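Hi W., the S-adenosylmethionine complex you wanted:
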Amino acid sequence: MKSLYFILGFTLLLVAAVPEDAHHTSRREAMVGSQIAARGVTDPATLRAMGTVKRHLFVPEASLADAYDDRPLPIGYGQTISQPFIVAYMTEIIHPQQDHRVLEIGAGSGYQAAILAEIVRNVYTMEVIPELGRAARERLRKLGCRNAEVRIANGYDGWPEQAPFDAIVVTAAAEYIPPPLLKQLKDGGRMVIPIGSPFLVQTLMLVEKKGAQITTTQLMPVRFVPFRGSP
Ligand SMILES: C[S@@+](CC[C@H](N)C(=O)[O-])C[C@H]1O[C@@H](n2cnc3c(N)ncnc32)[C@H](O)[C@@H]1O
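Structure:
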């Protein structure tokens, strides 16, 4: 009997000794394998970034246990951190390269910006809700993410001082492509944006700019929070 208590006590000790971080790391690895790679994302840089950035540091305390689940999570102010697969898909589709400058509209928690910042040289992310923008800026600073800058403003106008961008990622659903963003996209650049009514299912679109020619490709149905302000 004594030895049974000993084994039980030892096992409990071992469980308690598994560091919190190791638990999150194994959940993150599972997320990359079963939610992202299994659904066809193959870009090694994207998979590496999704495996590196600690999503649990971007969600509110109350959602910590769900941080690596296959779904968006609330981040306050009626907004969400997107589903991990969608973040990975939108990252891969812009063909991110090490020397790229990328604009994101909709910083939210700062998670998508942190993923992009693992891959490209400069990330510029805009957030219209000041409280979220300030929290994202502080979170990215604390995590040592020095190549992502947060601006609190309406993303409809883009960030002309930092344009042109190799790629633009829009993470709120717009009724149409904001013309300033098209203008700020480099020749040869790619934009990914959910287009459609905020109250219905929208279509994730790939927009490619080649000289004066703009081509759009429908990618998949999605549900994003609405683009606030114009459009
Ligand atoms: C789905 S959430 C973004 C998730 C975010 N990318 C992340 O990784 O957590 C969409 C965000 O877009 C922001 N947003 C909506 N309209 C905007 C606009 N016109 N300009 C800038 N941000 C906007 C919302 O406030 C919200 O935080």
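The longest strand covers residues 185-195.

W.
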